Amino acid sequence: MIDAVGARPRPRVEGGREEEILEAAVSVLAELGYDRLTMDAVATAAKASKATLYRRWSTKADLVADAISRSKGCPLPEDVDTGSLRGDLIAQSCGVGGFTDEMPMSVIAGLITALHRDADLQKAFQERFLAPRIAISAGVYARAAARGEIAPDADVELLAMTLPAIVVHNAYVLGIAPTEDLILRVIDNVILPAARGSQAS
Description:
By secondary structure, the protein is mostly helical. Helix content is about 65%, strand content about 0%. InterPro entries: DNA-bd_HTH_TetR-type_CS (IPR023772), Homeodomain-like_sf (IPR009057), HTH-type_TetR-like_transc_reg (IPR050109), HTH_TetR (IPR001647), Tet_transcr_reg_TetR-rel_C_sf (IPR036271), TetR_C (IPR011075).
């Protein structure tokens, strides 16, 4: 069986050490970025031998892919049904694992410069980190559509990309950390009016 980055799965590290190593990998990634992350650095942070890491993960891409999908430091946003599109978006964006959660955003920052150069890493990031979050977001908009909060002529796919796009632009282009105020402004001034489509006029 081949895993998401094309390598054959290796034996798991015994006991709770594997989780400790994954947590250490996320911390090192957030601190140093992917380009400067080394197996030595992760081994030191996890107080493990480099041989232990290589028995389980053949490359740092393997290790990072596992870490960003399984580490408690990169939790998924809560999929809370608040009864409204606005409430769901706030809960998803401002809670644990959301845009205001420092660690997931630091992980993205640590990966962003390498994603366009490392095809295996990009594939793993999309499948293991992004896909579950996109699925939660799709559920938010599907519930809103079922409640009649989204007009038939609204571009739901574009709506779903709007908040992440603005947050990422502010964080990684302008250097402005995501805040609840920014998220509320985008929801109230961009997403909700656009969701109403022609019904707003």
